[in-house]
Amino acid sequence: MSKFLTNGQRIMDWLVKCARWVGFLIFYLFDSFLLGLATDMVKHGQPGQVNQFIGLTLIVAALVLGVITWRYQRQLAANNPRHFGKQPLNAKRLWQLLGLFALMMAVQFTWNYLIHIHVLSSPVNQALIDKQVVQLPLWNLAYSILFAPVIEELIFRGIFLNYFFKKDTRLMNFLGVLISGTIFGALHVPSLSMTWLMYSTLGWILGFTYLHFRDIRYNMALHFLNNAMSLL
User: Fold this and answer.
1) Which domain holds residue 73?
2) How many domains does the chain have?
């Protein structure tokens, strides 16, 4: 009976973690939706409503950042078998980070080349972001380059891996990187395609980065550089 109760508790804990993680993701996507509404209002000539929605977006963004950062820190304080924390930057880590950035740029270059020679079509997600940047450049660039890398790394790498793959074994690390990157790709492209594979590959690189450096700030920096090179 006690074994049955223990297994039931584990399942319940897992379901609660799933609900929390999905909740964090919905919270973030809702904030992105608000910025999208503000962007759409620009073309309709509604500056007053644009400013209102930008203000609301900033308020929700601050709440999202505060809640998710608090949850991540609480998570590590309660259970941190991989010893994630602040790892000081040195020459070796800098070169490794630059090497991973070069790998991400190689993925992006290959993807853009295949689009250029008409092997692949331009992804709808990227086209939408480019359109929004044209309509409302300052806020969309700031959101995509500065805010999104921080929140997405906390959600997809930090919280996700510690919730569902916290054991520090080769199998758990491999599965954690594989699944988190796959979900990351599906969020950007919700269908199996070469574009989904490209986004997933970027997610796998970021997952490896988190487990390699054991400091999520390296992930944020790498994600920031990738988004900046894609949009500027």
Assistant:
1) 2-231
2) 1
